[in-house]
Structure to design on (619 residues):
């Protein structure tokens, strides 16, 4: 089966050649039709940049794809004409961004904003039909009285409602791929669950593959069937979501799980990862996680561990993963609720 | 864009000076448009038997040195003054808007080149630039509009560009890009409407400034040519009689003063209404 999106060895750099900073360094992962992939990592781990770069949404210069390929249904986006990529964006790929409060144009009615997504990709449809379709999409994402609400402006809606509108825009053209970048981060906890439901429904209706970017392991555990853990612009671990969360093979994944609060955990059960994620300017030598890693050895500071397959459906970048996988050296106190 | 009884309109109404100024300008505009039906007089009708008359029932604002009725001339002069003010700003906007939008949106080297060029234009005092342009183009209403309008282009370009810079990094612009909007669509449908507020405010204030500039050219005899009644020209023609018949230049002077003041107040009111975040000093 041809993957919907296949990212291979993608490297994104900022700045002039020679003095460039690598925001994304050799990232490889893919997502199959209908599947939901969760991408986890701390802020600045490159999880969003990977996808923005893949779909030509980073301003270039200063950003550029210096290595690797991005194949969307077999076509390489990294080498495609910018205009062609634009025709794919919004039509075959829908985006849901983090900030519903600011991702809608304040001086355009929401009906028009949804309709625009349709008109942009279908010159023949006309605004009237597009607006009618916008109203349908609004009821699809659970907006009551869509006819009336379509004529209102974004400031008249709550964050959750606006995120529904953003989702309606994202699925307006029945995309093959839905990219949700921290879709619930800016929302109240009570609204988060609703929005995740809307995304799940939207995905079922369109049959789109979904990439869910989040720093929230709980959200990922609920939604994703596969998981990619990123750190400092690299993939640390990837595999089946349940496997990874229950039996993490990379110390970073394990540490992430340990510091995520669950319903039962008390304050003493939460173990934050010491230190900070490295800045692009001062990337540590060897494995980028080694300064914060509990299990570090001398080799970790000198050599970058290879990102390699472990078993049938697991990839890990750690020098000691083979031993870990056999002996189970990494003990995880509280597994996340899956 | 703004619904009825919207907070913006409420805020504008709350500002008394602006509200009164707006009413004054509306009355002035209406009277200027309806001039022929308000007065039967001809602004250029000479009456050498009645020169430099004072205020009277027959001539509300008296007569000038050629016996022309000043009230009638003020009325017809309103047309020319408002037209040159509004026309100049429209002309200025027509040039500055596309350049500012483009320069701000594209950024990079193009933006730098355009902005350095604008900096160079800033070195010329605006009125001097208008004067120089009229000297080249010749006098007359159209040329005054072009000359005065051109002098508003550099600050307008800066204003538009700064608006674009602040809007272009907004999330909804990225969203529009992710939907597949082309650059031109993003500029016209997403960036322009969101930068319009400050542009409207500044344009209103500039109408006042351009009325003064046009009147200044008229005063110097470089504007609309006699015998056409234009406020600045009336001022200029009256200056020989400043001691014998001061009303001949006081009346047009007052009209220029009050009208420009009104445009400034309306501009202030619009700024407070459209952008409540900017606080008054």
């Amino acid at each position: 089966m041809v993957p919907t999106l296949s990212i291979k060895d993608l490297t994104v750099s900022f700045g002039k050649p020679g003095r460039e900073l690598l925001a994304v360094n050799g990232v490889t992962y893919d997502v199959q039709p209908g599947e939901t992939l969760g991408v986890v990592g701390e802020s600045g781990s490159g999880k969003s940049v990977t996808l923005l770069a893949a779909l030509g949404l980073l301003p270039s210069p200063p950003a550029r794809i210096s290595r690797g390929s991005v194949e969307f249904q077999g076509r390489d986006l990294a080498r495609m004409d910018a205009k062609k990529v634009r025709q794919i964006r919004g039509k075959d790929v829908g985006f849901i961004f983090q900030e519903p409060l600011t991702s809608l144009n304040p001086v355009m009615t929401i009906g028009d904003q949804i309709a625009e997504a349709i008109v942009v990709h279908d010159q023949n449809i006309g605004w009237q039909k597009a607006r009618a379709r916008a109203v349908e999409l609004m009821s699809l994402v659970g907006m009551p009285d869509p006819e009336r609400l379509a004529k209102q402006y974004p400031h008249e809606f709550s964050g959750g409602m606006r995120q529904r509108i953003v989702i309606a825009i994202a699925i307006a053209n029945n995309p093959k791929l839905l990219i949700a970048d921290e879709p619930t981060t800016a929302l109240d906890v009570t609204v988060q669950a609703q929005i995740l439901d809307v995304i799940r429904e939207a995905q079922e209706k369109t049959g789109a593959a979904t990439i869910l970017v989040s720093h929230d392991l709980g959200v990922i555990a609920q939604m994703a069937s596969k998981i990619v853990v990123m750190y400092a612009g690299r993939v640390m671990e990837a595999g089946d979501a349940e496997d990874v969360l229950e039996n993490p093979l990379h110390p970073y994944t394990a540490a992430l799980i340990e510091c995520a609060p669950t319903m039962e955990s008390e304050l003493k059960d939460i173990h934050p990862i010491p230190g900070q994620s490295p800045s692009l300017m001062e990337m540590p030598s060897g494995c980028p996680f080694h300064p914060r890693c509990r299990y570090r050895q001398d080799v970790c500071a000198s050599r970058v561990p290879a990102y390699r397959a472990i078993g049938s459906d697991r990839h890990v970048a750690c020098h000691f993963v083979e031993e870990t996988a056999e002996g189970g050296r990494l003990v995880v106190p509280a597994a996340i609720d899956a | 864009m703004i619904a009825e009884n919207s907070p913006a309109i409420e805020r504008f109404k709350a500002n008394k000076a602006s509200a009164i100024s707006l009413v004054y300008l509306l009355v002035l505009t209406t009277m200027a448009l309806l001039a022929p039906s308000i007065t039967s007089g001809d602004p250029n009708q000479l009456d050498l038997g009645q020169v430099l008359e004072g205020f009277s029932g027959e001539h509300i604002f008296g007569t000038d040195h050629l016996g022309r009725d000043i009230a009638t001339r003020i009325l017809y002069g309103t047309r020319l003054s408002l037209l040159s003010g509004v026309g100049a700003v429209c002309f200025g906007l027509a040039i500055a808007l596309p350049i500012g939008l483009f320069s701000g949106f594209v950024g990079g080297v193009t933006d730098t080149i355009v902005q350095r060029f604008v900096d160079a234009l800033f070195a010329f005092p605006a009125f001097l630039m208008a004067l120089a342009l009229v000297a080249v183009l010749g006098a007359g209403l159209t040329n005054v509009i072009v000359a005065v309008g051109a002098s508003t282009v550099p600050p307008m370009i800066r204003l538009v560009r700064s608006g674009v810079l602040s809007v272009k990094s907004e999330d909804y612009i990225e969203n529009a890009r992710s939907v597949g909007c082309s650059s031109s669509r993003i500029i016209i449908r997403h960036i322009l409407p969101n930068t319009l507020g400050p542009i409207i405010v500044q344009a209103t204030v500039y109408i006042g400034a351009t009325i003064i500039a046009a009147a200044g050219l008229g005063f110097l005899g470089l504007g609309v040519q006699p015998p056409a009644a234009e406020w600045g020209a009336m001022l200029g023609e009256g200056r020989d009689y400043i001691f014998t018949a001061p009303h001949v230049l006081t009346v047009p002077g007052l009209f220029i003063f009050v009208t420009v003041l009104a445009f400034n107040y309306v501009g202030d009111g619009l700024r407070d209404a459209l952008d409540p975040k900017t606080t008054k000093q």
Q: What stands out?
A: Chain B is about 75% helix and 0% strand. The mean pLDDT of chain B is 89. Chain B has one domain: 16-29+68-274.
